[in-house]
């Protein structure tokens, strides 16, 4: 029990640091397996000699920062404009399922929506546009990465919103807002001035995770992002998959550069945070009661609706494709429907589905046990994981996957701990654990300790308090955390591929492999299966506490 | 002291002769014996439904006949498998590797052969090797000019064809020059997979064949010729063509099959393929309209063979050989050539087959968009693998980072 | 008509009426509302500030100095409120909290804030972290912050219950005298009879 925090850190930071170490040697020219034995900076020279390097770096940085800034701004605006209202419950209900849509599936859906031959253009052609052929417009894969940024924003807003909602009660939002409003502040302005400064530090880590993820994402970037040249992360993966094995050295150098970029961007973001906080304090104490409120509220609503609509419509489009036999431009709907694709691929989906669920459930269960053991230890020993320890916990979310997974793979091979579902489950745990911790830590800490005091006074042992009180009352947040962890596991691509040696296949690895073929009908089937699994997880997380606590009103609200 | 040396010697011997346990294809019954009950992890590109289905069928057949289980490990890129073997070698995992068989050719084969990552020779000892058309199809023993030396076994022939939608493009351009003219008159309706994608690089090689003053030079390594002079016409031609490509050459499809969806969506009128039957197969399953047809350039197109190879540390080498041998069987070859299944060309010599076997091939309806062998013409040999690497690299520098 | 007027103000939870009140509070006067827990005292205040939770429905009319407040957004009502907790913003300094309340049009903000601090006996506290203040000091800052925002009426939600006895008298004096001086109608919700006596105004007891 006392070892739990240590064990958790070992599971998290260990693989990341070991993997990183495993990429440093090849970056410095040492990779005996391909006959490279000369230490030196040749790989970095090759990296910076690559003609696309400056654009690739710029793309990584700009798309990552833009996606994070916009997603955060939209999240904050939605919260400022609507949190605590009846409308907000609708927004929450519309956005939270988006969390369960895997990134790749969402990106495919959006790609089909906004492409020049996509659903939107089909819907207004030719009667409005006059187009009988798709226009030759660079919407997807635009050189600035706008489509990619939009795709990322639509996916990250629900995540940040969920994280913010978990942290919000600690900021006493409704009474602070009442105080501000009673002094003549509008809702949005009052919320921004009185609640946001306290909320932001609580969601800082998730924001950093979003920044690191957006900068180094591979699957979404391949589908929606530019490719002449692509962002650095995609290029690194390409180098890793070149027949010319010396390019592995360049890839390793690129992976280190990518890590450097992420660290640099995080530092920049932190500095910007501090500058903004100072400006924000001046603004908050300046007394201005600006009056853009109604417009901002409409804008927030529109942005929330757009996020939800983009992903839902995209998924609906893919769903339709999965039962399409022929669907030519510019028909708004398929010319003919068929179930043959499902009949053909369905039987192949099932075993993969079973493996996906098995791995995700095991990783989630392990993460849940470790996280609860950690939190319980903190409480019993009156410790708080703070500062550096907390940062180690989130290391796997901050260090780009491509930077440490290849090194980790080599390491796992050295130990002979590869290829099985167990190895894949363990590497999934590295990514599932931080998310479970992120989701569960606040409710756990927020649990009213006076209840335990009362119970102890009644003679209950710590064990009894844990099982009968804390865990029972925290069933809903624990299950929500489990659903988030499950979703994270289902969505893993690179870890499954590299550590599983290709032998362990999940819906996501299958979907990405099939995506190379671009057949929307097959992509539709896998995207739906992928999303369906995760949605079931979330449904269980929400439904179970309602069932268990059916006649306990006080415990139902928490779900 | 003496005893120590002897012990070390014995240990060294044990380390250097793991081949003792390796199956010997000349004793085929022993191979079959050893293979029974093995599971073969076949790493093959998983981006096309048709190939996935064929692999599943082949797996079922060897299961039923030889008791060998086949697991298709679907790759999004063959190089992932190369990486895997490389990582295993780095980690010193010299037996019991994760991969038993790889669908491979060209640069990936050259890289693995050079790095000593392949098991063999074994291919030319397979029982069904006797049917292979070694004389008529030099590509089956010379993979992109690199001698296969029995390290890989061919299973399908491929040749570059172009397919076009006759609804929009009835008379396709049949040379590089004509293609550039047509694109200038119809901007935005042609593209090719982005090099270094295999097919995109093939497009560059194909264009170079058409444009180079002396195409024979392509058989030599890049270092051995005046590369700048040989490729100058190609770059001049691409400078003209690129602004007239789909999206003005600022975005490209990332793989070959992506072109199918683009043509199905009506975005492009013309695309390149390495599989003569691909268009017919896509029409058959509704992916392309039935107005699509195939053609080859007047100057001929590049052909090559697809192979399977066994990594040096494979776990189920005997099972892998049984599968490779089955792929060479007339039955598997007939099925692969059926456009309703794969539409891949056979590697077999018809003259070695029995009448019944030949009749099965003749009975195949190749599909409305598939060219006959006569229409396809003799395939041009693949250039030396160094051309693919260098052309892709230079194309990327010139156009691939041009935004 | 000046003062705070509640005209047949009725709050329903679902279909059941929860609170019903008709009252007039003249400028400078205090109306005390008492009642057991759950009688809807705080809900009543929420109806007046305009922050009623969505589950409640409110009928009747609320007017302040001749303005009809019903339907106005909270920030348009100019109704100040003090809770039993001070609810100072922990991310702002003491002076920052006062600045938050002071309208942006005010001339020489620093001087205004310093003067306000002097008025509550906290000269030189502008840069202090509110967390370092004593309970009584926090209560005074909260009061001053609210007054600086120039409300036209004052609502008190058990404002003195967290203070110890000595402080309580002092705060009562301070709040009621300031309200009288500024001519603010005050509506106080409490279950401390002492509060009601100190206020000296009318008393309504909710069932």
Throw out a few tags for this protein.
heterotrimer, A: 559 residues, mainly alpha, MetI-like fold, two-stranded antiparallel sheet, 2% strand, globular, B: 403 residues, alpha+beta, D-Maltodextrin-Binding Protein, domain 2, 2 domains, 5-stranded mixed β-sheet, 15 helices, 10 strands
Helices of chain B, by number, come to: 15
Overall domain count of chain B: 2
Counting DSSP H or I runs of 4 or more residues, the number of helices of chain A is 26
- How many strand units of chain B? 10
Q: Which topology of the largest domain in chain B does CATH recognise?
A: D-Maltodextrin-Binding Protein, domain 2
Counting copies of identical and different chains, the oligomeric state is: heterotrimer
Low-pLDDT segments, ≥5 res of chain B: 1-20
* The CATH architecture of the largest domain in chain A: Orthogonal Bundle
By CATH reckoning, the class of the largest domain in chain A would read Mainly Alpha
| Share of β-strand residues of chain A | under 5%
State the total count of DSSP E strands of chain A: 4
**Between the first and last Cα atoms of chain A, what is the distance in angstroms?**
28 Å
Helix content of chain B: 40-55%
Order of helices and strands of chain B: HHEHEHEHEEEEHHHHEHEEHHHHH
Termini separation of chain B comes to 69 Å
The major β-sheet of chain B equals: 5 strands, mixed
Regarding CATH, which class of the largest domain in chain B? Alpha Beta
Present the secondary structure layout:
The complex is a heterotrimer of chains A (559), B (403) and C (207).
Chain A: H1 4-27, E1 30-31, E2 36-37, H2 42-49, H3 53-82, H4 86-95, H5 103-114, H6 119-123, H7 146-167, H8 173-182, H9 187-194, H10 196-216, H11 219-224, H12 232-240, H13 247-285, H14 293-322, E3 324-326, E4 336-337, H15 340-380, H16 387-393, H17 395-398, H18 401-414, H19 421-446, H20 449-457, H21 462-473, H22 475-491, H23 494-499, H24 507-515, H25 520-548, H26 553-556
Chain B: H1 2-16, H2 28-35, E1 39-45, H3 49-66, E2 69-75, H4 78-90, E3 101-104, H5 106-114, E4 142-143, E5 146-147, E6 152-159, E7 161-165, H6 176-185, H7 198-211, H8 227-241, H9 258-264, E8 270-273, H10 278-284, E9 292-295, E10 303-309, H11 317-327, H12 330-337, H13 355-362, H14 373-376, H15 385-400
Parallel strand pairs in B: 1-2, 1-3
Antiparallel strand pairs in B: 3-10, 4-5, 6-10, 7-8, 7-9
Helix pairs in contact in B: 2-11, 3-11, 6-8, 7-8, 7-15
Chain C: E1 4-13, E2 16-25, E3 30-34, H1 41-49, E4 56-64, E5 67-68, E6 79-82, H2 94-101, H3 109-119, H4 135-148, E7 153-157, H5 165-182, E8 186-189, H6 193-199, E9 202-205
Parallel strand pairs in C: 3-8, 3-9, 6-7, 7-8
Antiparallel strand pairs in C: 1-2, 1-4, 4-5
Helix pairs in contact in C: 2-4, 4-5
